[in-house]
Specification:
This protein is mainly beta. The protein has one domain: Beta Barrel (Porin). It contains one helix and eight strands; from the N terminus they run αββββββββ. The chain has an eight-stranded antiparallel β-barrel with strand order 1-2-3-4-5-6-7-8. The radius of gyration is 19 Å and the shape is globular. The relative contact order is 0.19.
């Protein structure tokens, strides 16, 4: 009898944890979010791979508007050369489009970042957008894209796709 209760209760518990009720899975004003994400880029012209890891901390000032700080570590791996590492820091804002489906939250935003090593770097600005897929009230998968462009006179923009996980603290 105990094993049949366990066999019935375990799937219900997993369903409850993975599929939240609609009223419980979106951010609220005052929530703080911690996000870890990453992206990778390979350039075929120079056979170079760049891996970017990000950490963001943001505060929701309303249910939709989030402001925060971000830091990233970039590792560049040229084909026949030594790896190069760099860090960036910056600020961001996101606007979430809340809907009746509380488990999916689309967002748009902007950001500014600059190198932590160089005073000559004027920084990058960009726009971003994506979707958060809430697994429960405090955890979401994040899939998004960024378009970043340098604020210096030289250089061109770059499009990055990112994947990550967010935690409401």
């Amino acid at each position: 009898m105990t094993s049949s209760r366990t066999a019935f209760a375990l799937p219900l518990l997993l369903l409850y944890l993975l599929v939240p009720p609609t009223a419980s899975a979106q951010q609220e004003a005052g929530d703080t979010e911690l996000q870890f994400s990453g992206s990778a880029q390979t350039t075929t012209e120079s056979s170079t791979t760049t891996v970017i890891t990000n950490a963001k901390v943001g505060q929701y000032f309303t249910r939709s508007l989030q402001l925060g700080v971000t830091t990233s570590l970039t590792a560049t791996f040229p084909e026949n050369e030594e790896a190069e590492y760099g860090g960036r820091g910056g600020v961001f804002f996101n606007y979430s489009f809340l809907s009746g489906d509380a488990t999916t939250v689309p967002y748009l935003g902007g950001q500014y970042s600059r190198s932590l090593e160089s005073d000559a770097d004027q920084g990058n600005a960009g726009i971003n957008g994506g979707f958060k897929f809430y697994l429960n009230r405090r955890t979401a998968l994040d899939v998004g894209g960024n378009y970043l462009f340098p604020l210096e006179e030289t250089g061109s923009g770059v499009v990055l796709l990112q994947f990550g996980i967010s935690f409401i603290l």
